[in-house]
Amino acid sequence: MYGVVTRNADEVEMEPFDLGFYEVKDVTGRAAAPLPNAVNMVSCFGDNAAASENPELVPVDERGEPATRDREYFDWAYVCPTHPEYREGLLEIIEDCAAENDDVRLDDVGFPREGFCHCERCERRFAESDHDDWSDWRADVITEFVAEAADRIPGRTLLTLYPDPYPDHLRERAGLDIGALTDHVDEFVVPVYDLHYATTYWLESIARGFRSRLGGDYDVHGAPPETPFSIELYAVNVDVDDLIHATEVTETYAKDVLFGYDASNAAAALRRKDADTRDGEVHRPE
After folding, report:
1. pLDDT tens profile 239-262
2. Which of 211, 273, 274, 208 is nearest to 242 (CA)?
3. How far apart are CA 78 and CA 68, in angstroms?
4. Distance between CA atoms of residues 32 and 7, nearest Å
5. What average pLDDT does the segment 160-179 reach?
6. 280 pLDDT exceeds 60?
7. In which band, very low, low, confident or very high, does the pLDDT at 286 lie, cut at 50, 70 and 90?
8. Partner residues linked to 227 by β-bridges
9. Which helix (H) or strand (E) element contains residue 90?
10. Alpha carbon distance 249, 244 (integer Å)
């Protein structure tokens, strides 16, 4: 199936998409009411507004440097995943989303990067835990949050993953333990964004890597992974032919192909792709 990811409520049922994803809370902190006719998305620990209003929410590394967007490699500001009031607020938003539509997508889940978080609360909680290894403790923090969220979602729980299928990379970077998360997640979504998609060998490598990482066969005609995954492509100002090519590569490996933030361009690509597949058909008179 093909889906659209959007901040515009009127696009979630736009043709020719099969399903719509609607951002209820994004990394800017912007909030919107959830929709009954879309899979509502919640940016969990990415939140520029909250981090700006309350710096105590922001994760810090061992040197006390915060995970904010004015630092190198951070596109937005983060909130520490152990902050109890913020977590409780997220779970309330997730409940509100689930009340409108049974399926909910959890976005921006995890610690910001390796080395986070060393705030006083995280240091204390790690010291009080049963873990000797800090990476194990971080992974438990994230898995526990996803489990709590999934308990509030009556339908499918979808979880966004960074586009890095290599073993242990997601765990070391963000505390995302895929093996543990599969007990609580019905489908993963992997955004693989580019401005051109002029070459796609790297896209295929990532897609094939996730198929293998999630337990699927290298042979794309074999059994799919037990926990399916979709890939989200960027559609803003991307050449239609390049977007078509990226779609063809992606759908070979992923369950669904989603298009982010330019419904019109994505729809144009799908319509042309459909027309191209019908080129050359011979319609014989009856």
Report:
1. 999 999 999 999 999 999 999 999
2. 273
3. 6
4. 9
5. 96
6. no
7. very low
8. none
9. helix 84-100
10. 9
Residue 231: which of 255, 209, 200 has the closest Cα? 255
Q: Which residue has the tokens 């597949």?
A: 277
User: Any idea what the Cα angle at residue 101 is, between residues 99 and 107, rounded to 5°?
Assistant: 100
With vertex at residue 222, the alpha carbon angle to CA 216 and CA 227, rounded to the nearest 5 degrees, is: 30
Q: Which amino acid, one-letter code, is at 16?
A: P
User: Nearest-CA neighbor of 17 among 8, 32, 34, 5?
Assistant: 5
What is the model's pTM? 0.94
Q: Which region, left, alpha or beta, applies to residue 169 given φ > 0 means left and ψ of -120 to 50 means alpha?
A: alpha
Q: Cite the DSSP H helix spans in 195-239.
A: 201-213
Distance, CA of 99 to CA of 105 (rounded, Å): 14
Q: Are the C-beta atoms of residues 31 and 286 closer than 8 Å to each other?
A: no
Question: Exposure of 234 by Cβ count < 10 A (0-12 exposed, 13-18 middle, 19+ buried)?
Answer: buried
- What does the alpha-carbon distance between residue 272 and residue 284 come to, in Å, rounded to a whole number? 23
Structure tokens that stand for 1 in this block: 């199936």
Token pair of 77 as six digits: 């500001």
Confidence of residue 215 (pLDDT cuts 50, 70, 90): confident
The distance of Cα 199 from the centroid of its chain, to the nearest Å, equals 23
Sorted by sequence, the CB contacts under 8 Å of residue 41 that are 6+ apart come out as: 5, 21, 22, 23, 24, 25, 26, 104, 105, 106, 107
- Residue 222: band (very low, low, confident or very high) from pLDDT cuts 50, 70, 90: low
Q: How confident is the model at residue 219 (pLDDT cuts 50, 70, 90)?
A: low
Under a CB-based contact definition with an 8 Å cutoff, are residues 197 and 238 in contact? Answer: yes
Beta bridge partners of 22: 6, 40
